[in-house]
Amino acid sequence: MDRKMRKLFVLLLAAVLVLSACSGSGGAGGSGAGSSEAPDGGSTAPAFDLKDAIYEYGEQDSIIDNGASLYSYLLFPKTGEPEIDDEIRGWAESIYNSARDELDALRESDEDAEYEINVQYNSYLVKDTYAGIAEIEFSNNSGVAHPTDFYKTFNIDLKQKKLLDYEDIIDKEREGDVLDILTEMILEKYPDADVSAADASWLEHIVLNHEGIDVLIPRGVALATYLGPQEFSISYEALGAAYILDRSAASSGQDVPAGAAGIGGGKPPAAGASVIADPSKPMLALTFDDGPSPYTAQILDVLTKYGGNGTFCVVGNRVESFSDTARLITAQGSQIMGHSWDHKQLTKLSNEEIISELNETIRVINDATGVSPVMYRPPYGAVNDTLKAVSKDLGLSLVNWSVDTRDWESRNADAVYANIMKDARNGSIILCHDLYESTANAVARAIPELAAQGYQLVTVEELLRASGTPIEPGAVYFGK
Ligand code: ZN
């Protein structure tokens, strides 16, 4: 779908959603606060359905903007092949730029307009021959009543170093067979679904996976909007002759490479338990958001070397892919806490959605580390009274920051180092992101320097306790 079609589709979808909300029980209001109720009273399927993110192929690249009004968090892989990377990054940039444009347009009539854009992916490595990349785009803005979501897929022939077209994967002549399989699967899941309109557009987003292909169907295509986006896996066996890629690549089932996500694993956890802070000496808390990532272990190593600890605010859907790294965080004596399940702006979600974002994240952190954090950092630092009330009910406190290194913006180790050193003071909570190599390099220089200046590098919890600050559910902490 090109941009124009996509925009048209957004508008149509928004119209359908508004209509369905108006005819539903009470509607959800214009603040993007909720999701439409299913006619039978069931709850809406989650808008983001990639569950645990799977990173088997490519390095991670991102466009992240924590700036006011445009809240963006776009993740996509980098392959090292310039032509393919231009294509993938170009797609992500077009999403980001069009969000900017749409926000600018919204601001002409509403100066408080906001736009949230959230793009995440799964990448699959299929027998070292092919890679499949499934991106899901979620956007939520004050111009429409409900969030929207789309899929985009990229399939790569790793030997020939080129992107594959749909026709390289599926025999067009046998497309009807694939649609038959798909509609059967849909009916199995939703017996009342109307599949009479099934056509090739339902197969627009396919991604190669270990056992066959996944068919991703955006919200509102094929099924009623309230059922959300859909994913169906069709095996090579079921695809039969309709699958025309090299079959030998897929002959012996899945082969997920261990540690493919680039974990700096294998290292034994550092024995250093957390330092007992001396309240009479200066201290500060370095905090790292949006990981775990391949750079987390590097940061932990430097902390260990200088007898410090940090605080790592992890995105829930990444934890399973980086569970060794999550364990490394707690084993080093650093603090781990959640940063939502999929980096959505929590102030825009319903209470049920907030609870699920927070509880699911605690669950995976606990599964990986045995720790159940009682603090978390809200994405973008966005907080309102509803979020505080829900957090209080869940027994959770919120941690923001007093020093923003803006490392997501500069991606420059010198600038990040300079920002840390310029603003660090006794009691600071410093915001960094362990998603970037530039940040890991910056803190590798800042940590020895801060230690030399006499700072104790402590966790957020230690910082609060050392100053006698009570840690209360529903409260928001900023540091000095
Ligand atoms: Zn973040």
Evaluate the radius of gyration.
Answer: 23 Å
- Identify every distinct bound molecule in the structure, by name, code or SMILES: zinc ion
Class based on secondary structure composition and strand pairing: alpha/beta
Q: Largest beta sheet: what is the strand line-up?
A: 1-2-3-4-5-6
Runs with pLDDT <50, length 5+? 1-48, 250-273
Report strand %.
15-25%
Keywords:
six-stranded parallel sheet; disordered N terminus; binds zinc ion; six-stranded mixed sheet; alpha/beta; 480 residues; 18 strands; Heat Shock Protein 90; TIM Barrel; 21% strand
List the SSEs and their pairings:
Layout (H helix, E strand, L loop, with lengths): L2 H21 L35 E7 L4 E9 L3 H28 L5 E12 L3 E12 L6 E10 L4 E3 L1 H4 L5 H15 L15 E5 L2 E6 L12 E6 H4 L43 E7 L6 H10 L5 E4 L1 H4 L3 H10 L2 E4 L12 H19 L5 E2 L8 H10 L2 E3 L3 E2 L2 H4 L2 H11 L5 E5 L3 H16 L3 E2 L2 H7 L9 E2 L3
Parallel strand pairs: 2-3, 10-11, 10-16, 10-17, 11-12, 13-14, 14-18, 15-16
Antiparallel strand pairs: 1-2, 3-4, 4-5, 5-6, 7-8, 8-9
Helix pairs in contact: 6-8, 6-13, 9-10, 12-13
The site of zinc ion has 5 residues, from loops.
